[in-house]
Amino acid sequence: MKPIITLFKKELLLEIRQQYSFYGILLYMGATIFVLFLAIEEPEKEIWNGLFWVIQLFICINAVAKSFMQESRARMLYFYTISSPTHFIVAKLLFNCLLMLVMTAISLGLFLAFIGNPIEKLLPFTGLALLGGFSLSMVFTFLAAIAAKARQNAAIMAVLGFPLIVPQLMLLMKLSNTAFTVNQSFQWSDILLLVTLDLLVALLSIILFPFLWKD
Amino acid sequence: MRKSWWKILCVILLVYAIAGGLLVKIPNAPLLEETSRNLFYHVGMWAAMFVLFTCSLVHSIRYLSKSNLKNDIAASQYASMGIVFGLLGYITGAVWASYTWADPNNPGFSFSTIAREPKLIGTAIALLIYFAYFILRSSIQDMDQKARITAVYNIFAFAMLFPTIMIVPRLLPSLHPGQEGNPALNFKDVSPEMRMIEYPAFIGWALLAVWITTLKIRINYIKEKHFIK
């Protein structure tokens, strides 16, 4: 447990020291939502929902992609000598989840401010948005590790990730659609399914990352 | 002879499936009528595709545990043949659907109405995953690294594919059998005579697919013989 906390602290410290990347993502998000605001005014509920999740997807790719690419070859070798792959990937997963939760909260705020607020049940929707951000960051963290090992840019991450994320995204859109009307209630079985998928992704990452790690 | 019994079985099963599939008496379902004979051929493509993708997965796992490049070649060849059978299944499914569920004379008819069918979406996702697998393969130069990274992706993608295929149909309305709401098309309505041909046909197509792939794998072993031990 202790190595994970140390690695997590290191990620956090790096993020605070090199603030340009954090602000870069924030600006990306703000600019995208502002372009949407200029392009459409007061969209329908379903369009609002669809746009929100697609924007989440793009933010996630940009936020998570750098997490492995910023590590140079020499630095990876250094980590290789001092920590175990399981600790390393768990720390990365935790940090990216935290980053994505913050990003989701901010982008939800911007969406409500700029694009309008057709949501009837704001609290459940916020919960779902956070759960969605969490799920997205889990899948893309592992794909970022693969893409970084292949020495490729973020484009290959999108190619690898889009087909994998489709079911979760569809599930999230279906669930969050119920937040737009008063009399529809959430299906807890679907939420359980999402959580199970997240656990599956975490388990797969922990099992498979050691194979990526050794060079 | 001992090793080729399954190839003989494959030929016998496919001859039986093709002849029997065209001759068997089909229950006269409304809307479907004689097109339900496509069951033996279209669904057989799916069966073959899944067998191939599963073989690819097994070889990827074996590569990670043994680091033998032979397994990597086998995994990639099974995946590429799986794509071919997936495309065949997609096309036969789309054509079949366009003659039964969607009316081509309807002005609202378009490809997207058929492509929205959940089972086709599931396959499209599977195909996209394996296309991405080949993009990833071609982007890495070093052979060992390519084999290892793509094996990891293959396992990860396959594990995510199964929830996809279970989840997606739950989210969308479908006309495909296995969902409620369409009495004309339900697997429970498959008559016993059809069943007698359906299952041998699936096994036959799967065997044929594996047979084709083993040939391709052997060609690749010869091509890469300087690298594999």
TrEMBL record, chain A:
The keyword Transmembrane helix applies. The chain crosses the membrane at residues 20-39, 51-69, 90-116, 122-147, 154-171, 191-213. It comes from Niabella ginsengisoli. Belongs to the CcmB/CycW/HelB family. Signal peptide: none annotated. InterPro entries: Cyt_c_biogenesis_CcmB. Keywords: Membrane, Transmembrane, Transmembrane helix. The keyword ATP-binding does not apply. This is Heme exporter protein CcmB. It is found in: Membrane. It comes from the Bacteria. It is a multi-pass membrane protein.
TrEMBL record, chain B:
InterPro entries: Cyt_c_assembly (IPR002541). Signal peptide: none annotated. It holds the Pfam family Cytochrom_C_asm. The keyword Membrane applies. The chain crosses the membrane at residues 39-58, 78-99, 119-136, 148-168, 199-219. The keyword NAD does not apply. Keywords: Membrane, Transmembrane, Transmembrane helix. Residues 12-162 form the Cytochrome c assembly protein domain. This is Cytochrome c biogenesis protein. It comes from Niabella ginsengisoli.
